[in-house]
Design a protein that fits this description.
Elements lengths: L13 E5 L28 H13 L4 E5 L9 H9 L9 E3 L4 H10 L5 E4 L5 H8 L4 H14 L4 E7 L8 H11 L2 E6 L4 H6 L7 H11 L4 E3 L9 E6 L5 E5 L12 E4 L4 E3 L7 E3 H5 L5 H12 L20 H4 L2
Parallel strand pairs: 1-2, 1-10, 3-4, 4-5, 5-6, 6-9
Antiparallel strand pairs: 7-8, 8-9, 10-11, 11-12
Helix pairs in contact: 1-2, 3-5
The structure holds S-adenosylmethionine and iron/sulfur cluster.
């Protein structure tokens, strides 16, 4: 029992941990305006819970752990959590997903404590529009956060923009130019119909094909496809010739990359989610706080992995999609 292989032969090596449900933004495609995290302190995984769960997962072959949220930089003790996780033998990669509003303050400390790379969400460079999409965010602070991550030495740095028709699709080109100027990578994300907010904003969905057509027109003759690795996930990526940047589209809706899925998700409340598009979960919080032995917890995880579905069902029916909000799942 030292590897997690599901019944479709996929080895699970990547765990995404949402370390808080709180967020300082309210991106309209991610969470309802009135969403208030419904949890007391004891409901949330403690440092010790997180450390124990990740250690057990590393013994089962997990090598990559992403810190996400909500907004992970709002979690008290984020630097300590980063340190605890990156010190676990077998964890070799610990990226962070953040909206970067607080990254200017945290980047050097996080880098020193094992956060080697970062994905930063930025959907618009226009201050008023950015504020509208995030319902209150300040794009200048986010750009300061990006600069701080570059200065701290995090690499690679990717900016992620959800491409939305009629909302920010006129900025595809300027966001690419921004990434090139900063020498960092950019990915456009297809809107996913997850939770009430995601389902509502699905009317603005842009397909991978449409996004790629715009990228290709803007960067005519300057794109070299990057051969996908087994673990690239749902993204098609291109090197932008004669720059330090790459561009790609994360198309979880247009494309099923489920056959190569190597990931599972853990919520801040300790629920292990096997697939973004299905309801199934088990409580690892209850398991690590019980008197179960490590081997018994491992068996529980192995049994759960056996329930990982073959693929999500975004395309056939949105009724299958979890009622959880993205802000709870962590993207
Ligand atoms: N707060 C951090 C951030 O914004 O990067 C981390 C958590 S956020 C839930 C992770 C990613 O999920 C972000 O890149 C965000 O754009 C994406 N996301 C949220 N709701 C989405 C939706 N309905 N469709 C596609 N992407 C979504
Ligand atoms: Fe917060 Fe990230 Fe969701 Fe925006 S996408 S509301 S920043 S969790």
């Amino acid at each position: 029992m030292n590897k997690l292989i599901d019944k479709f032969g996929r080895q699970i090596t990547y765990l995404r941990i949402s370390i808080t449900e709180h967020c300082n933004f309210k991106c309209f495609y991610c969470r309802d305006d009135e969403h208030i995290p419904n949890c007391k302190r004891e409901d949330i995984l403690s440092y010790e819970d997180i450390q124990k769960i990740v250690r057990i997962f590393s013994e089962l072959g997990i090598s990559k752990v992403r810190l996400t949220g909500g907004e992970p930089l709002l979690r008290r003790g984020i630097v300590k959590i980063a340190n605890l996780i990156s010190s676990i033998p077998g964890i070799t990669d610990m990226p962070l997903s953040t909206n970067a509003q607080l990254l200017e303050k945290f980047a050097p400390k996080l880098y020193a404590n094992g956060v080697n790379r970062v994905n930063i969400s930025i959907d618009s460079l226009i201050p008023a529009r950015f504020k509208e999409i995030t319902r209150g965010g300040n794009v200048h602070e986010v750009i300061n956060g990006i600069d701080a991550a570059i200065k701290a030495g995090m690499h690679p740095i990717k900016i992620n923009a959800v491409a939305m028709r009629g909302i920010n699709d006129d900025e595809i080109e300027s966001l690419i130019d921004f990434a090139i100027k900063k020498g960092i990578d950019i990915r456009f994300i297809e809107t996913m119909p997850i939770g009430a907010a995601g389902i509502k904003s699905f009317t603005q969905h842009m397909s991978e094909k449409d996004i790629l057509a715009r990228i290709e027109k803007h960067l005519k003759g300057r794109l070299t496809p990057i051969i996908p690795s087994q673990t690239d996930g749902p993204a098609s990526n291109y090197k932008i010739n004669n720059t330090n940047s790459s561009v790609g589209v994360i198309s979880a809706v247009s494309n099923h990359f489920c056959q190569a899925c190597n990931r599972i998700r853990l919520t801040a409340k300790g629920e292990l989610i096997l697939c973004l598009g299905q309801e199934d979960s088990i409580s690892l919080k209850d398991a690590v706080r019980s008197d179960l032995s490590d081997n018994e917890i491992k068996q529980l995880i192995v049994n759960a992995i056996n329930k990982k579905p073959e693929k999500h069902e975004f395309n056939s029916s949105i009724d299958n999609i979890s009622n959880r909000q993205m802000v709870e799942i962590g993207g």
